[in-house]
Specification:
The chain is an alpha/beta fold and 137 residues long. The protein contains 5 helices and 6 strands, in the order βαβαββαβαβα. Strand 4, helix 3 and strand 5 form a beta-alpha-beta unit.
């Protein structure tokens, strides 16, 4: 039986590092992006499964070819993170994590459907991988 894929939006350096660590520990994941330049960058980094969404379309939703489990979103901007939460929330019943370097948007993200908002000055959240792997996504 195929396990769920971790969905990762990693537009930051910390997000890229997390994606590399995810690959190293062997968790299946899908990258999420909203533009072609980032998609090309992800492909050049060896990411095979990528979902590109139109964040300008209010009715946009994810219809992936992969079963989505947990979601990890690295905050690049408040508006982009809010759109990703709105687009992704209906795609899974499992936990959604938002990684932010600002303490201010915590309630906004929670109100939109994020289960966990993790404040990290440097964005290093490798500790999540052990619990995600233990839960078998």
């Amino acid at each position: 039986m195929q396990s769920d894929f971790l969905l990762i939006a990693a537009p930051t350096k910390a997000g890229e590092a997390f994606m590399k660590q995810t690959k190293l520990v062997g968790l299946p994941f899908v990258a999420l992006t909203n533009n072609k330049m980032e998609r090309v960058k992800l492909e050049s980094q060896g990411v095979k499964q990528i979902i590109q969404v139109d964040t300008m379309d209010p009715g946009a939703s994810i219809i992936p070819d992969y079963p989505i489990g947990h979601i990890v979103l690295f905050e690049e901007s408040l508006p982009l993170s809010c759109r990703y939460i709105q687009i992704c929330r209906s795609g899974t019943s499992k936990s959604m994590y938002v990684i932010t370097q600002s303490v201010n948007p915590r309630l906004i993200y929670k109100g939109l459907g994020a289960d966990y908002v993790i404040y990290s000055k440097n964005g290093d959240v490798k500790f999540l991988l052990s619990s995600l792997k233990a839960n078998k996504i």
